[in-house]
Predict the 3D structure of the following.
Amino acid sequence: METGTEMELPQPSRVPQDLSEAIKEATKEVHTQAENTEFMRNFQKGQVTREGFKLVMASLYHIYVALEEEIERSRDSPAFAPVYFPEELHRRAALEQDMAFWYGPRWRLAMPCSPATSRYVQRLHEVGRTEPELLVAHAYTRYLGDLSGGQVLKKIAQKALGLPASGEGLAFFSFPGVPNATKFKQLYRARMNSLEMTPEVRCRVLDEAKAAFLLNIQLFEELQGLLTPESQDQSPPQTLGLHHRASGQAQDPSPAEVPRGKTQPPSHSPAPLLPWVLTLLTFLVATVAVSLYAL
């Protein structure tokens, strides 16, 4: 007969076993960095301009074209096949509609691409071609984040920019192939958790997930340099450091070593660019922060 209080056995420390939970745990610090920025608060107030929105949508187009090219390359690989959902998730077709809306019929020639966007694109191609087992980190952080936060961001942009309720210019944020986002995310996480990988590969996937978020943050850190006094006093040869194609020859492809870009506004008229850049930074931070929170 028991006569005293039962002794409680010590509980082992909890280590996430599921890959999706492990990624969420590994990216907490980046989540906090994005969540606490003032730019996100500004976006929530609806401080968005059409020119700034066009710039961020162009960056998203370049990123998703690269990501989905590499996904197609790995569609039959055991390292990615379980999470291959082109009909439900792929964004290229939707972004092409948005590019035509924002940049007109010659949008392929008109839309810009910043150096930070090019570095992001190059990293995606490098992963897809040399380390396809890491591609799931980029797919998970981008697609599930955009699926989760897309409707909130769509409504803010729609109201602030006075866009039609029918959704023109905002196709990126709509996922007609996903009628129930909550159930689909559960399915995606379950499929992702079923991927077989060694402990060493798992560690590299977690590192790549963090790198993916850092690449997003570096997009607006690059443009943030335009707002600093020293960059405003200089006269660079390139406007905003933008060009019109995502280059596969960008320097320094390693996400952990990508320097913070400090491009400058054109010398002839720097002031009008500042509201656009601030808006772009606001939208990018909001996108990253909402996506991270949703994950």
About this structure: The chain has a mean pLDDT of 78. Residues 20 and 145 are 13 Å apart (CA to CA).
